[in-house]
Amino acid sequence: MADQLGLLLRRLRNQAGLTQEQVAERSGVSVRTIRRLESARNIDHRLGTLNLLADALELGSEDRELLATMLARTSTPPTFAVHAASTETRPTASASGPPRAPSRQTSVLVPARAVLDAAETLAREAKRRWQREEEQRQVHDPFPLPLCWQPAPAQLVDYAANVQRLPPGATPQLDLSGDMGSIAEVYRRIRSGRLVILGRAGSGKSIMLIRLVLDSLAAFTLPERVPMIFNLGSWDATAITLRDWLIGQLLRDHPHLARRAPGGPTLAAALVDADLILPILDGFDEIADGLRREALEAFNATSLPLVLTSRRDEYAEAVRGAGAPLNWAAGIELVDLTLDDLAAYLPRTARQAGRDDTVAVWDPVLKLLQATTCPASVNLTRVLSTPLMVVLARTMYSETPERDPAELLDITRFPSAKSVEEHLLAGFVPTVYRPSVPDREAGGFRQRTWNPHHAERWLGYLAHQLVRHGQDRRDLAWWQIGDSLRRSTRIGTATLVSALCTAVSAWMTGLVAGQVDPEQILVEGAMMGLSAGLAFGAVYAAITAFGGTFQPTHVRLRLRRRHSVVARPPIQTFTVRFAVVLLGGFVMGVGSACATALVRARYWETPLASLEVIRATLINMLVFGLIFGLAAGLVFGLLAALEVPVDVSFVATPVSLLSANRATVSQQILFLAPVLALTIAVGGRLVVDLLEGGVLGELRWAWPDAFLIGAAGGLGGALSYMFCFTAWGQWVILTRVWLPLTGRLPWNTMAFLEGAYRRGVLRQTGAVYQFRHVRLQQHLSHSYCERRRRSRRTPVHSEG
């Protein structure tokens, strides 16, 4: 059917009297893609691409239905459902006004019901999440700060005719005037759907995006795009495409999107491919310096509608490097707050009991700022021109009765605007952690209190880890905190923990089995633990050497698998896991053979150097290696094949994702321990029966010993896997034990992170935390390094 679809597209283009180049110019689809579609060389017919072509050709309802029917026949199984196209024609320029924003109702097709349901659920989740974030940031208390803008410089935006996607000769009319309350309306005026929001650090770009999302979702109807905020700081355009990165971010923050959509891909991939996601990309300036040009070029290689925020200088540098601004993009630049804005806002934030309403704490300061132009007034006026500094000043002075903002006008203490900013940044954390009656949570329990000095040190450590090794990350993920330790420390910890888990398991099984010699039980358990530690440590080292990380799993065990619930077929999943684990199990078997030889030399007085012992040890290496390798490969492969995504109702926050992973790991242990034990025991019998005789001679695998080894290996292997190869296990041994032992984090780290979020130091972005602002993160990191340099007398590596 692909060739018939190509012929239909060519016929429709010829009827419109357009060349492939003209269609490409109108639609934003490359000439190469159009050529491949018409020649039936592209069998991946994506909904978004065909919608753009249909709009560019100005197809009527009959042609759209014909194209829809033909496309539905090419999709097997059908990812999309046929949709009766609207008779609404493509907007054109006229003297009466600008073209209307494009409607999703003119699509050739709409996605299948499952994909639309996922989009609707995602919209509800996004609305709930960002409403909570606005409340957490006190955006509406007492009222939103007035954020206004001006048009971005002409050299940083595209031509208005291109922004409105007008044909040659049409007169563009693009009105970008408005304020934060009308940002969604302003965006809807932009036909291309591309907007760049510029502003200096702390100017309110992120708050503007949240308002854009909430106002857009207030009038959301399917099949409109769901606006989703993504932080660009983690994207490397040279390593991963924008599409794949967006899908990965959706899967991280919305685990239920890992379910399979009709047609094969995950729901996350189907949403992106169906053009149901509007990327709201925050922090273009946070991309690494050498990667911004590549990122801009990647944006220009697509016609995907998007909103992009950046500081002006970094964006201008990328534009110069790429030789062009963001294609089809309009642009606005946020302007500074005025003294009138401050006079209306700050006095209403000071509500301490016992203060005289006629003399508000900010009134003397604001009157002085308006009346004089002395250096102190100029400095403070400049500092308070951004919402970030206004919020910090509010926290320190409006919400703290013993502080007087008049001290900010002390030119001796604060000779420059930068010194005032540093003072506000330095005082924010101690202020929000000051001793006071703790707030009550929703359940009525009091939040924990933390020493301000300790809290600042812990936050400084976390901030510092985000910028180590030349990186400049924003996402503070609980499963990555342990990665701040040196790799050698993590490998040593994994080796030690797995050795202890296996040794304790061997000691327990030995005691239960009734072995009467305690010394032999201890020695055999220690030797088995040592071999297991070396095996698991080797596998851990190999994984981390190739950049492997332990991500939180978004799946749970289920014996009965519903149709089309996972993106990867079970057989493929089983094969990948089996191959990875087989090697580690074989190393465990080799170590067990060596341990057996040493135990026999200790208690049976067999000489290690004799040829018979060497031959027996080599045979045991092969036999034990196959037993443990095959057993581990089969069981862990089966574990992977039985995994399914979490329920659709699950929405990832840091706390909920941690709890879900703890529950998932518990399920895995309850499955792994008995199944692995039985597989070692019974599988060992089968391996011995197959290998016995011939060169290997007589082999022994008595059932009592088999079940004893199986029990120790099953329990020890399951516990070692839990602590060393799951995100939750790494969180426990590194973040909950090692880092608190060394004083770098508190013992209850998650409670501390949640407390920092409630106090406004951190913010939640899906399943991860971020510092409230990059300026605060940089200040805490710098302060931490300064304190560390002052306190240490000898060069000691602090990362582990």
Automatic annotation (TrEMBL):
Gene3D superfamilies: lambda repressor-like DNA-binding domains (1.10.260.40), P-loop containing nucleotide triphosphate hydrolases (3.40.50.300)
SUPFAM superfamilies, alphabetized: lambda repressor-like DNA-binding domains
Spans annotated as Disordered: 82-107
GO molecular function: DNA binding
Keyword annotations from UniProtKB, A to Z: Membrane, Transmembrane, Transmembrane helix
InterPro entries: Cro/C1-type_HTH, Lambda_DNA-bd_dom_sf, P-loop_NTPase
Transmembrane regions: 526-550, 571-598, 618-642, 669-688, 708-734
This protein's record includes keyword Transmembrane helix: yes
Compositionally biased intervals (Polar residues): 86-95
Organism superkingdom: Bacteria
Domain HTH cro/C1-type residue range list: 9-66
Protein name, per record: Transcriptional regulator, XRE family
The species this protein was found in: Salinispora arenicola (strain CNS-205)
